[in-house]
Amino acid sequence: MNNVFLSTAIRLCCESRATPRVSVRRIVGSFTYLNAGRRPLAEIIPRSRVSRDSARALSITTRLEARRRTKQPSQFPESNVEPAPNSGTHREGQLDTEQWRDYDPAGGLPLPDGELSQEQVNAIFTGSEIDVDNGNYILCVLHWRRMSGALIDIGIDFPRSAMIEPAQAAQGLQYLRSTYPQVDEQGLGAKWAEEESEKMRQELQNRAIKLRLYKPTTSPEEAQEEESAEEVEEESQQGTEYGRERSGTSAAQGLFAAMRERRAEREEKKIITLALKERSLLHTARGPLELDGGVQPQVGIKRYGTMDVVLREPDSIATLETVERKPWVRYYEDQATLVKENTVPQLSTARRLIPSFLVMLLTVAACLYLSENYTPPPTEARLFPSIPPSVATIGGLSIALVGMFLLSRFPPFWRINNKYFCIVPAFPYAMSNLGAMFRHDTFAHLATNTLTLWLIGLSLHEDVGRGTFLAIFFGTGSVGTFTSLMANVLQKNWLTWIGGSSGAVLGVLGALCTLRPNGIVSVFGYELPMAAWLLLAVVSAAEVFAFARRKRTTTDHAGHVGGLISGVAAAAYLKWKYDQKKATAPEPVMRATKA
After folding, report:
1. Where are the domains of the chain?
2. pLDDT attached to residue 471
3. 7 pairs with which residues across the strands?
């Protein structure tokens, strides 16, 4: 407005030289108009006394608006520059590697090339039937973990509800690494670990501040305020109590009290803010990083019905402490790692199956020989003659299983345990086909197999004897172990391992129910209300159905099916052999005697 007045005043001064009647009073009147905005400027200065040029100068309409009103063409050429987009986000100026922060880790990061088709998904996930939605879901989640660096922390594990097998996740990760090799997983992983450690340090510091165990560093303004407060407090303590009672509260004391109140309010606000941050893990500064992975608190989910989902408060975490193994334990742990590279060994299917198949054949042949040629020792030659043979046999097997369980906790035995008492489909050892029956890594697994062996093994041992019982146990266990190995190799489940005597125990069950199909099953003197053949049918149907579903589980259903089939076959062979022996046995001859 002042610029308009100056321009108007200059033009009027120039006009006053040519026309002396234009006085300074009219100039002041124009300034009054510009400040008050009451009447048009033409009413203040009559048109008869102002020339055309001064009237044009007094107009507050800009030249651009006048040109638009008269639609005069512009003297400048039209520009082809398009207007800048106004859809800016918080990611402006950041690299594409930070795009993962905008996505939920549970849903993953979209692939740069878009979603894949069903044909492409089938080519990636060979050996398993998976639809296009689940295939793209696996790839997007793994792509998010690669780009964020969380792959070194979370790995390729998926929630149990997703029903994603480890082999499928490994195939998806292999595809992403071959398609997008430029992703620096180690560098991003180091950055992820650094952010996680900084986040944990900040949380511990805030918690210590809240508990008054740690005094935070103050800003310069707060430090100056505290220093002035100390000076005021020191000044307020000067003098005597009598003098302070006579004069009352001084201005310094009032200022100090006000400063203390402000400090208390500020600390209370900090405590409330920290509490809100702890209660809301989904709305922190790092966004999706809080939802998964690392050492962050996990948000529990309670489901009601099919659609209702309720988030509960996270479990409180007191402290996190890294436990390092002792040097001698780390040495044996390194020795027990048979595959040093973090890749699947390139072996053919025949190379993985044929050696174990030959060991299985030798085991079955040895079991047949044992069943045919075993002669029980006399009672006086036994070590414990007062104990029944069935109890002694199953007790010896139980001692062997428990002993292997205890040895697996001893670090010098770890390498032998991983090599000869465990089958890994990615890199199997042939001799582990027999030793895997004795490995149990959890007490629950050991107790289940041992108790079941005692329940059904005593009856079978009483029917067939020690030699045949041991032949059935080891023979069916070897067949069940090889069946599990073959199923996992054909399905390309490279991230699994096989161990346990479940196949042998179910082989004993199958043999018992086949030898006495119409018998009554008794458990410690209690009879079950079903025939033996019905029990065998129910157990077999359940195992076959579970194996056909191919649901992600830690139970070796393939080995169970192999043990049941081999147990039934062993019992059928024993019945055939008994019938043949009975048919070829000579009939007793009746001779007449004279009276």
Report:
1. 99-191, 347-376+385-583
2. 94
3. none
Q: Please list the residues that pair with 523 across neighbouring strands.
A: 526
Judged on CB neighbours under 10 Å (0-12, 13-18, 19+), 392 is middle
Question: In terms of Cα–Cα distance, which of 577, 573, 363, 567 is closest to 457?
Answer: 567
Find out whether 458 and 382 touch, Cβ atoms under 8 Å: no
Q: Nearest to residue 437, comparing CAs of 401, 410, 396, 394?
A: 401
CB of 472 closer than 8 Å to CB of 396:
no
Cβ atoms of 478 and 364 closer than 8 Å? yes
> For residues 566-578, b (16+ Cβ closer than 10 Å) or e, as one string?
bbbbbbeebeeee
List the Cα angle 523/525/526 in 5-degree steps: 65
DSSP single-letter state for residue 325: P
Which tokens hold the place of 558? 């393939």
Q: Which of 401, 411, 486 is nearest to 436 (CA)?
A: 401
440's CB contacts (< 8 A; 6+ apart) are: 401, 404, 405, 408, 446, 449, 499, 500, 501
Q: Which two tokens stand for residue 393?
A: 């046999």
CA distance 536 to 543: 11
* Cα distances (angstroms) measured from residue 34 to each of 10, 352, 420: 15, 97, 100
303 bridge partner residues? 309
Separation between Cα atoms, residue 375 and residue 383, nearest integer Å: 16
How far apart (Å, rounded) are the C-alpha atoms in residues 549 and 382? Answer: 48
Cβ-Cβ contacts under 8 Å for 571 (sequence gap 6 or more):
472, 510, 511, 512, 514, 515
pLDDT above 50 (res 298)? no
Q: Are 284 and 314 in contact (CB under 8 A)?
A: no
* CATH code given to domain 347-376+385-583: 1.20.1540.10
130-143: burial string, b at 16+ Cβ within 10 Å, e else:
beeebbbbbbbbbb
CA 29/CA 45 separation, integer angstroms:
8
- Split at pLDDT 50, 70, 90, the class of 579 is confident
Q: Largest alpha-carbon pair distance within the chain?
A: 184
Name the residue with tokens 């209660």: 279
Place of tokens 């139980």: 398
Residue type (1 letter), 525: G
Q: Which amino acid is at 152?
A: I
CA distance 460 to 466: 9
For residue 236, how many other CB atoms are within 10 A of its CB? 18
Left (φ > 0), alpha (ψ -120 to 50) or beta: where does 398 sit? alpha
What's the pLDDT tens digit per position in 385-443? Answer: 888 999 999 999 999 999 999 998 889 998 898 888 988 888 888 999 989 999 998 89
- Angstrom CA distances, 344 to 45, 84, 426, 494, 510, stand at 96, 51, 6, 7, 36
**CA distance readout (Å), 162 to 133, 165, 214:** 12, 9, 43
Burial class (CB in 10 A: 0-12, 13-18, 19+), 290: buried
- 54-110 residue pLDDT tens: 444 444 444 444 444 444 444 444 434 344 344 334 444 444 555 788 888 888 888
Tell me if the pTM is above 0.85: no
Q: How far apart are CA 121 and CA 139, in angstroms?
A: 10
